[in-house]
Amino acid sequence: MDKQELAGFLRSRRERLQPQDVGLPAGPRRRTPGLRREEVAVLAHISTEYYVRLEQGRAPRPSGEVLAGLAAALRLTDAESDHLHVLAGTAPARTRTLRRDVRPSILALLERLPQTAAFVISAAFEVLAWNDLAAALMEDFAALAPHDRNLARRAFLGPQRPDTALYGISDAAEFRHHVVMQLRSTVARYPADPAVTGLVDELRAASPDFARLWERHDVQAAPVLTKTFQHPVVGEITVDCDSLQITDRDQHLVLYSAPPGSPDADTLALLAIARGSAITPSARQ
Question: What pTM did the predictor assign?
Answer without folding.
Answer: 0.70
